[in-house]
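It would be a great kindness if you could assist me with a short task in structural biology. The matter concerns a single protein, recorded as an amino acid sequence and a row of backbone structure tokens. Could you please explain, in whatever detail you think fit, how the structure tokens follow from the sequence? Thank you for your consideration; the sequence and its tokens are set out here:
___
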Amino acid sequence: MTTESDPSYPAHWEADVVLRDGGTARIRPITTEDAGRLVSFYEQVSDESKYYRFFAPYPRLSDRDVHRFTHHDYVDRVGLAATIGGEFIATVRFDRIGPEGRPASAPADEAEVAFLVQDAHQGRGVASALLEHIGAVARERGIRRFAAEVLPANSKMIKVFTDVGYQQKRSFEDGAVRLTLDLEPTAESLAVQRAREQRAEARSVQRLLDPGSVAVIGVSRSGGGVGAAALRNLRDTGFHGHLYAVNEAASADLLDGVRAYRTVTDIGAPVDLAVVAVPADRVPDAVRACGEHGVQGLVVLSAGYGESGPAGLQRQRELVRQVRSYGMRLIGPNAFGVINTAPDVELNASLAPTPASARGRIGLFTQSGAIGIALLSGLLRRGEGLSSFVSAGNRADVSGNDILQYWYDDDSTDVALMYLETLGNPRKFTRLARRTAAVKPVVVARGGRHTPAGHVVPGTRLPESTVSELLRQAGVIRVDTVTELVDVGLLLAGQPLPAGPRVAILGNSESLGVLTYDACLTRGLRPLPPLDLTTAATPRDFRTALADALASPDCDAVVVTAIPWVGENAPADDLAGALRDAVAEHPGKPVAVVHVELGALAEALSTAAGTVAPRPATAITPTAPAAPTTPVPGAPVAQTPPPGTPRPADTPPAADTATRPGTAGEGRIPAYPAAERAVRAVAEAVRYAQWRRSLADAGQVPEYEDIDEAGTATQLAALLAGAADSPITLDEADARALLSRYGIRVLPTLPAPDADAAVRAARALGYPVALKTTAPHLRHRADLGGVRLGLTTETELRRAYDELADALGKPAELLPVVQAMVPRGVDTVVRSVIDPAAGAVLSFGLAGVPSELLGDTAHRLVPATDRDAAALIRSIRAAPLLFGWRGSDPVDTPALEELLLRLSRLVHDHPEVIGVSLEPVVVATEGLSVLSATVRVARPPVRTDLGPRTLPSY
């Protein structure tokens, strides 16, 4: 017997998955304790589905059937179930078979597979998710092919097999369609899996942001507290769906003007979203009630979880497990809430009251409620609104990755702003960010370098600078502060992308123009000489100068500087109108304004053309507890019609003053109180636009005919046979042999335990030679005198040997070696490391202490393309040394690029290779020489991005 507590039970096969409709299910192995669940599940399956499964009428399962389908060895016979609320909604099983189609054991590598999905859950993508997971299990157990027989009329199941992306064969035998699937992942199967992941996760967020009905649980009768505040914001914003208040002690039909109930289960109508604002110890009861009522998602505002210590963290884990057991998704706990300003939704399930003018084109995600308030306030004060806002608190379930999936194809969002305290899984984040950034800007501010309390995520060992560089390679605009996040977001939301780095500067202050010019140079832009309009310039002069600059083919962006007029002041509205007229006349280039003590100008510019009044410049503050609102007698409560009333039809959208970026004459022109801030925003837009253009030619991962992939796999298997779980550092011979299989030749060294041995080694290698120490504390430390180069005779070699021993210690401590000399060149370092969260990272820099002290190392994610390799060696600050600095001969950079690409292929093809350091790599004018190599190997780490879809486990 096998139960979940049995040591042989494969607990690592358990997983939570997001289904096609945005709901969740749990996938786990079937055990002997599931007999009752299996029988109950089968009773709810239609006769037609039973016929498709067994090819004959099969009304009920016999005791023998139940025993067979619940007793597995998890090697040759495996069964998985998809569950919601602890009950089966679908099952899948495989049985290993031999060449004759009969039951077999390993080394047989084929298995028959069969599914059964409850009719009520068909069409939700359950079978597709189960196929991914049962396929991963089969590969783990040495099975390489699935065979399935399906009745021709069972088109849904045939589609599940044919759409998965595996290589397959199809035939028709004995009245059934026979399918054979090769389980080796392919580029197509991975693309299918990720497309399904995106649709499912985006849909799960959409259900949270576009509910037809909302219940707020924990609304006090006094009108105070978090629950009452959330209810008022939902009501006052004009939410278009049904709204309910829940208080277990409710004695009246209304609370704060909203229909009230004692529990969610008393509401006689569907509830899509529940906002939970009760103490942490009462949250489980609220979740249970929501799950039983069929609520689709939760926003938990309640605190007292991971942020409060170990006990709270355990409470948080239990909360996630409970929520997912009912197929729901969770924002929070300790969340600030969510906002969706779409005109047919107008959802404000947060603690921040938003004015009617809050609608815009920016999507905002934060983990911190306080930072969320600051960002909301800053955007609204400067005239920009939101499409959606999610403040996820401890983000125990829904994270920034889910929100990126939603924003990717959300037509209401043009710019994505994210304040992240942790990245969680950088590997997945960079993948999603790269895809999203290809269609809309993604701007990220990091709030800390360490995991805050409450955030249970895989950590990364990479330095912060490395993570930032990898994000930039993925197209992410990385900023350092909340202020920069708003500054850059405003420019990207209201202006088109620049075509290049040339910046025109004009204004009525020569000094401010010079400051702007200097800031452009600092940011790597190419500013044109500033145009001084003098302090006597009128709005008409500004318009003419801006129009000329925008019409000129010599600039790609314009920065306008303005200071107060001396004497009679021109109205700020006149100058704002003049600038907007010029932009309308010559659209297509971004414009930013730098103002000094001209707050009225900034306010006027922040108002789009045609807007009646500027947006309020007041800050957002969390809703404070207030006295209960007494409804006017006889007045209807629009948000809470009687239970069972259909959701109101969509009303025509109200006039929306927010416009898409770059719309002529209608977009807002961003204004900044300092030249440095405006130029920083322009520079980030320039860099992002360049990245977008580079996508047209992303390069390719080259193929090399001399790579021995199979031989490398065999060698690694032999090296790791019987090894412990801890990594192994290969000896010099094994490292050289492994690298040589991928065309990386490491110059051999010969040991020199004494002077005579050194002389024999030199004779074998041929003079001139190098003598160097290999002791760990001296390795790669030429500055300590442990290396002697260019030794041409036996006399020189013996003298050098004695000098090393006298200066640094006994030969047994120094471990000296002799190596042949190579052509002189530039000493470099090439490395690759497997980070647990970011994946494989390729690094390059020059050898030596100065580069280490300055952190002058560049990085790329593996697998690197030819364009990546070329950019990698050119992105370090010391790169000019490779290309003929001060008259020196340029080195062989094509050979260096090839070395980088070969190493990238090695670590990508073989995840067992967890670390490689080639140091130094001497790059000469022709060719290069790898003088030393360190290789670390271990059993393959888990690649969650290549496995079946799954939510982070708790």
Confidence is low (pLDDT under 50) at residues 609-621, 624-666.
